[in-house]
Structures are given as C-alpha cells and as structure tokens.
Amino acid sequence: MKLKLLSLLRCPQSGQSLELEPNTAVLTPNGEVDSGWLASEDGNYRYPIRGAIPRFVPESNYADNFGLQWNHFAKTQLDSYSGQPISFERFWNATGWQPDALKGQWVLDVGCGSGRFAEIALNAGANVVALDYSSAADACYANLKHHAGLHVIQGDVYALPFAPESFRFIYSLGVLQHTPDVAKAFGALPPKLAQGGHLCADFYWNRLRTLLNPKYLLRPVTKRMDQKKLFSWLVDNVPTLLRVSQVIGRIPLVGRFLRRVVPVVDYTGVYQLSSKQLEEWALLDTFDMLAPAYDKPQSVSTVTRWFRDAGFTDVEVFHWGHLVGRGRKPVNS
C-alpha cells in the first residue's frame, strides 16, 4: 500500500480517518506497506494489510467464484497480454471520457477483477484505486504493481472505505449486476464522486434477448454447485461446446442466431483472437455466466432513474456491449 492512499481512506464502519499502526508495518524496499494494520482514530476498528493490499472484507464471501476466476485467468483479458484493444475499446466507448482528462486524477475502479480496465486508466496517467470484493484484488496487484499510480483494495461496494467526494472519475464495468442489491450498490457510488465528476456503470440488459440466453435455464443448478467442480467440468467440456458453436455459426443466414442455444461463450468473428485465445476466453466467460451467486439484468428506465435520482446531469443510457449508464455530478453553487 502506498502511503499517499491514506488521505483518501476512511473506516467503513465509523467513517473516521485511518492510521497506519507503525509498530505493525513491514515496508517493501520501495517504501510501500507490505503488511501491517490500519486502525480508526478511536482504535475501535482495525483492518489488515496483506500482500500490500488493505483488506476490509471477510476472506470468504459471495464473490469467491470471481476470486477463483480472476486468479486462474489473471492475464487473459489484459490488452497487454491478448495483443488486442478489446478492453481499451470497451472502456473508452462506454465511459466517453478522454484520456487527457484522467491524467493525474484519482479514479475509482469498482470491481476491478484482474485489472483489465485499470490498466487502461493507468496508461492514461490516472491514479487508480482498484477495488474488488474477492481475492481477484491479488491478481490485479500482481498484474499492474509496476504502475506507480496503482492502489489496490479488497473492499465492499456497500461499505466503501473512502472519504466523501474523493474521486474525479468512477467506473464499474461488468460488476454491479453480480451484487445482492444492485440499486444499493449503484447508490453507494455517487457520494464518493467529486462535484463535477463523472460516473459510468454498465449492466446486463433486461430485455427478451438477454432473458432467452440458455444460461438462465442452467444457473439455478450451476450457481449452487461447488465452484471448483463446475470449473473442472467446464475445462473438460468447453472445447467441445465451442467447436459445436463454431460449426453451427457457419450455417448461412441463421447460424449466428442458432449458436446462441449452445451454453458456451463464443467470440468467433467478434474478436481477432487466436484459436487458443478463443478457447481461453470461452472457458473464462462461460464460467463467468454460470458461476456467480447473483445475475440481475437491468432495464433502460431503471438505470436512467438511478442516475436522475442521484442528481446527475448529462445522463446517457445506451447499449454498447452492455447496457451503459453515464453522467456527471453537478457542482453545488
């Protein structure tokens, strides 16, 4: 943990500032805190720092599948690893932000996973606080710790450990629909955004096409399975399912529609990936669609209402891969 992060941190239970207990801190050669404890001003609450990451959540939680997923596929979706601008294009098209605007700014990534979007913001020169509820935070730190602007936290969206209005930009891409209460998760973000700041969040779209996805027939079973057993089953079967999907996809006119009945994520013809990468992405995202404890698509009207009720201006809700909502927090006069 870099010491300059302390100015932003607050105890998620009391709201008090947090202090590093000096007698517990173990520093890395470059001056970061590798391990130790953070304590509230009154000393009533303490939080560990392990592996240079402040930890504000229980070790095991409803997002365990994401920890398994992102530590196994730690680099798969990083543009620097895939060689394709997949995360780059999604990030800038969803947010509508300009790279120059992020330079030097504090940016919050809610649900960072292994850091696919944090990498984009860091490359733009931002100070990125990458937060995840699961142990995916460890994968993000391992991938991106060479960036001077990276700060990783394992924390809870419902109890964000930050001072009010700490961030000029906040984004959460592909995350909030996997929380127990999506409206409450969204509502936790605006208070941490500075006046005049920008927020972007995307969701699965609650429409007929989404709800006809075969995953919703399978998820009542798969989300209750032992996650390691589910993953093992997918390792054995995804390659075959992917080949079936690819064969069906080559049927003239109707193939691209018919292949949706095969319960596998198939990016053939969507992204310029090698055969090995297509299989890796298929395994990752098929597990991602079947394993989460929560999967709650949202409607255009609901997302628009959340932004409007939070007082945002310049609100836009549109489809770009997912249902995207973005807006600006007004400056109080």
Helicity range: 25-40%
Q: Largest sheet, if any?
A: 7 strands, mixed
At the first level of CATH, the class of the largest domain is: Alpha Beta
CATH fold name of the largest domain = Rossmann fold
Give the CATH superfamily of the largest domain: Vaccinia Virus protein VP39
Q: Which regions are unreliable across 5 or more consecutive residues at pLDDT < 50?
A: none
Structural class label = alpha/beta
Put simply, the count of helices is 13
Count of extended strands = 12
Q: Numbering strands along the chain, what is their spatial order in the largest sheet? A: 8-7-6-9-10-12-11
Gyration radius from CA atoms, angstroms = 20 Å
Supply the CATH architecture of the largest domain.
3-Layer(aba) Sandwich
Order of helices and strands: EEEEEHHHHEHEHEEHEHHHHHHEE
Using the alpha-carbon principal axes, give the shape: globular
Distance between the termini: 36 Å
- Overall structural domain count: 3
Please tell me the overall pLDDT: 94
The amount of beta strand, in percent, is 15-25%
